[in-house]
Design a protein that fits this description.
N-terminal domain of MutM-like DNA repair proteins; 4-stranded antiparallel sheet; 25% helix; 285 residues; 10 strands; binds zinc ion; Helicase, Ruva Protein, domain 3
Length: 285
């Protein structure tokens, strides 16, 4: 599932590619009766409104908040895309015939912005730009972990909102900190030698500091490597990211731990219903 580094990569590249272009048409094959009455383009009536609203509008820029891509249009309209499990945004020559393309924007340069979503779990809707912060999708999100003012004290205070929570689950809770998911949380816990089920309040000050450092480090590395494509993430050029080649814990079950002199084996357990990978020796509880 795309996390902060993938969503950052997508929005940064798209911002360069599509800013100042005009959306000349929109097509979608999403249509599900489960979304009746919902503000989501999977609701066919909502999609009609969406199409009318975004067509002939100029794209001002593309950014993100948490795991949401935000395409800002002129006249106070923003398209919000949450890519969920398998979604990715592509720029180039695409058509309805491309496999897994569920949503297609025609652009004024003759190219397309295509949304590929194999498992159809994504969410796409429009929000008034001046109401974004208060919108249902964004208002409960925690702070951005890579903002300069997100310091150690702030980090610790956020985690202590759930003092009895298991650290892996708390890190992935979007209302505590925005943008962290399964892959990057496994990697930051491996680096800082913390068991994924360790309750927040039992983590020592030193380990907490190490975790804070590891969080910034791992997310920045993910961005530098253009994201993680162990699932099927692609950047807007259709290229894979490289972070998956650097995993120390995530999906390395049964392998020898790479930490110096550790000699532990990577284990997998479920934490809050999600797979969690860790070394039972240097991340012992
Ligand atoms: Zn180890």
């Amino acid at each position: 599932m795309p996390e902060l580094p993938e969503v950052h990569t997508t929005s940064t590249i798209l911002n360069k590619l599509v800013s100042k272009l005009v959306i000349t048409d929109v097509w979608s094959s999403y249509n599900s009766s489960f979304y009746k009455g919902k503000e989501n383009i999977k609701n066919i009536y909502y999609f009609k409104k969406f199409k009318k609203e975004v067509t002939d509008k100029k794209i001002i820029g593309v950014n993100r908040r948490g795991k949401n891509v935000l395409i800002n249009l002129e006249k106070n309209v923003t398209i919000l895309i949450h890519m969920r499990m398998t979604g990715h945004l592509l720029y180039g020559a695409y058509s309805k015939k491309h496999r897994f393309v569920r949503l297609l924007f025609n652009l004024s340069d003759g190219k397309h912005l295509a949304f590929s979503d194999m498992r159809k779990f994504a969410k796409v809707c429009m929000i008034k730009t001046n109401e974004l912060k208060e919108s249902v999708d964004l208002r409960e999100l925690g702070p951005e972990p890579l903002e300069n003012n997100f310091n150690f004290e702030h980090f610790k205070n956020r985690l202590y909102k759930k003092p009895n929570g298991k650290i892996k689950q708390v890190l992935m809770d979007q209302t505590i900190i925005a943008g962290i998911g399964n892959i990057y949380s496994d990697e930051m816990l491996w680096i800082s030698s913390i068991h994924p089920e360790m309750p927040v309040k039992k983590i020592s000050e030193i380990k907490m500091k190490n975790l804070f450092k590891a969080m910034k480090e791992v997310l920045k590395k993910g961005i530098k490597m253009n994201g993680d494509s162990m699932s099927d993430y692609r950047n807007p050029y259709g290229e894979k990211g490289q972070f998956q080649n650097t995993h120390k814990a995530y999906r390395r079950t049964g392998e020898l731990c790479e930490k110096k002199n550790c000699k532990g084996i990577i284990q997998r357990i479920k934490v809050g219903g999600r797979s969690s990978h860790f070394c039972s020796r240097h991340q012992a509880i």
